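Subject: for your reference before the review

Hello V.,

The reviewers asked for a structural picture of the protein, and I figured it would be easier to keep everything in one thread rather than splitting it across files. Below is the amino acid sequence we used in the manuscript, unchanged from the supplementary table.
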Amino acid sequence: MPGTRAHLVCGISLGAGAWYVLRSTYRFDPSPASLAALAACVALGSVFPDVDTDSKARRFFYAALFVLDAALLLSGQVRWAAVLGLVAMLPAMGAHRGWTHRWWAALVVPLAVLGVAAWLFSWPPLSLGPYYAATVLGYASHLVVDRVL
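And here is what came back from the structure prediction:
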């Protein structure tokens, strides 16, 4: 069974490859902050399916959410902190290799999280497309490495 490191390496490698192709082909050149956010989406997506069990993936995922949540609270962005709280509760709604390891979850979970964010902040949903794609790519890479997809 592949570990957290394998999932992170695979997800981030695929994300870097996708960024290179998009940059070369479509002149996709996000700001450094957007690129960091996209990398975080790929990384978190690549470990998310394993946060339903005691693992390095769970510790990585919740440590990242804790740091991000603390930063959001300190900057007064309480709504974003609430969105992260929602995300943090999702894995508790099932057993290991349950719903988090289904192909449809790779599409639905990021869509739900980003949809709530778009609604809360009145952001145009299409502006979140790259972040959705990055999260789905990371999530799908996890399922491929686990031979689920």
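For the response letter, the relevant points are probably these. The mean pLDDT is 87. The chain is about 70% helix and 0% strand.

Happy to draft the paragraph if you're swamped.

O.
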